[in-house]
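Quick one from the shared queue. A colleague (R.T.) flagged D-lactate dehydrogenase (cytochrome) as missing a structural entry in our internal table.

Convert sequence to structure tokens.
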Amino acid sequence: MQKRTSEKRATQNETILWQHSRDESYHHPVSPDIVVYPESAEEISSILTFANEHKIPVVPYGAGSSLEGHCIPVKGGISINFQEMNKVLEIRPDDFLVRVQPGVTRTQLNLALKKYGLFFPVDPGADATIGGMAATNASGTTSVKYGIMRDQVRNLQVVLADGQMIQTGGLAAKSSAGYHLTSMFVGSEGTLGVFTEITLKVYGIPESVLSARCTFPSIQTAVEAAIAVLGSGTGIARMELVDERSIVQVNHNSETAYTEAPTLFLEFQGNPASVTYEASLTKELLESFGGIEWVEERDSKARAKLWEARHNLAYAFKHGYPGKSMMFTDVCLPLSELSGAIVHARDKMDELGVPGAVLGHVGDGNFHAILMYDASNENERKKADSVNESIVTYALSKGGTCTGEHGVGIGKAKYLAKEHADTLPIMMSIKKQLDPKDILNPGKIIV
């Protein structure tokens, strides 16, 4: 990457402002007044000190891959782009830790770790920045085995609204000293402070990996089978569900010939003997729940091809519906309520005639609906909004959450009071204490 000269590290170029006005979500774009490219925590401290004195909004910007409008500067102001802060600062292989700047991407980090026989497991699909993943508490396909972003962050260097710089944790594997501030900042979406360094847990690269897919006669049987796998004690690393409509779109987009039925995609990691045993046990278990086709792959290229059906699904729908916008829902429920929620989502989409698909991280109760609609057609937009609201309302009624991994951002703020009626005032007081002038990503989470 060509290094920017100092005079180019702040710009009001219209094209660059436009690039920072949006993310991958369906929310209306808003341009910042200026985009800055800091190179250090000290520069970010100076930016925030100035912004706080003059009550100027500040919005962090990573890869722009978020799905709820987190990096849209709805009140203008300063957009902080972290592409110049993209260094892997320290790898501590004996401690299974790595310290990075926020602009480091997931792929970049794993390339740096590979020479040590290590990897970072959180996989949200997009090649997001580590700062953005921490800010939204991202998870993804591997969360069933490794947990979510909040489980991986050991320490954060954070610049607060007034320019003060703090460390939230340390290097130790555990601590009982005081409030767990690291967990509070992870998932705060840039509303409490700006991350300048992140210390993460990392893991040994597994000796053997096996991926598989299995089809089912219905969504209900697929979910029931997935829950049985979790209860069996096998070390499943990924377990993803896609519905029949998803497979139809994948076949159309990727020229594959998968059986068009609800499908579980699975992955096992470990030593060769354990992987073979666990896959065999899982195959037998899934077949007892009506699994009708089992295909497994060990070769890395074949495994990558198998997982394309899940990872590229959103793009398959974008290409299949040119000119339409995509609304991507995100709820998480207790596992016992998951099949009912998925059926409800599919029924609501069919009832209102909204094209799309249902998919999700069935291993931890998180699922998504892809809703395709014409943004210029008010009726189509209302129908998509109605499906989204119905999915969220159902999840909340069953003890679930309005967002399992995408974050609150703009789109889910209206549901926060319903989900956290008792604690929302406490969240608001924390925000007020740390950011009294409301300059940090205003209009997100707490509105």
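The chain has a mean pLDDT of 95.
The longest strand covers residues 194-201.
Added to the table.
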